[in-house]
Amino acid sequence: MFLVDLHFTDMEKLTPELTAEHRGYLEGEYRSGSLLFGGRKAPRTGGIIISRHSCEQALRRLLDEDPFVKNGISTYSITEFVPVVASEKFSDLLLEP
User: Fold this and answer.
1) How remote is the C-alpha of 3 from its chain's centroid?
2) Residue ranges of the YCII-related domain (predicted)?
3) How far apart are CA 36 and CA 8, in angstroms?
4) Contacts for 34 with CB less than 8 Å, ≥ 6 apart
5) What secondary structure does DSSP assign to 51-90, as a single string?
6) Cα–Cα distance between 15 and 33 in angstroms, integer?
7) What is the per-residue pLDDT across 23-65, written as a single tens digit (0 to 9) for each?
8) Which residues contact 21 (CB under 8 A, 6 or more apart)?
9) Edge-to-edge strand order for the sheet containing 35-40?
10) In the chain, fewer beta carbons within 10 Å around the N or the C end?
11) By C-alpha distance, which of 72, 86, 89, 74 is closest to 4?
C-alpha cells in the first residue's frame, strides 16, 4: 500500500476546471479499488491519496499523467507502508495478520 503526498507548486494555475479534470482522471482508479481514499490537505497545500497499487512504478506512471502534475500544479512523493492494524470496518485491507 502507498501514501501519496501531493504538494501544490503553483496555486495560480489551480482552477475548478483542472480540479474536475484531476478527479475525473483518477475516478476509474477509485472505482476499481486501486485508490482507496483521496482528499485535500487543510490548509489547502496539496492532497493525500491512499493507494492499493501493488507496484510503485505503476502508481508513478498513473501520477505522472495526472492533470495536476502534467500542468505543473503539483509534485508528489510516495511512501510505501504495510498496514498491520485497522478498525474492523477496514480489516480486509490488512496485508499481515
Assistant:
1) 7
2) 16-81
3) 21
4) 51, 52, 53
5) E--S-HHHHHHHHHTSHHHHTTSEEEEEEE-------GGG
6) 27
7) 999 999 999 999 999 999 999 999 999 999 989 999 999 999 9
8) 67
9) 35-40, 46-51, 2-8, 74-80
10) C
11) 74
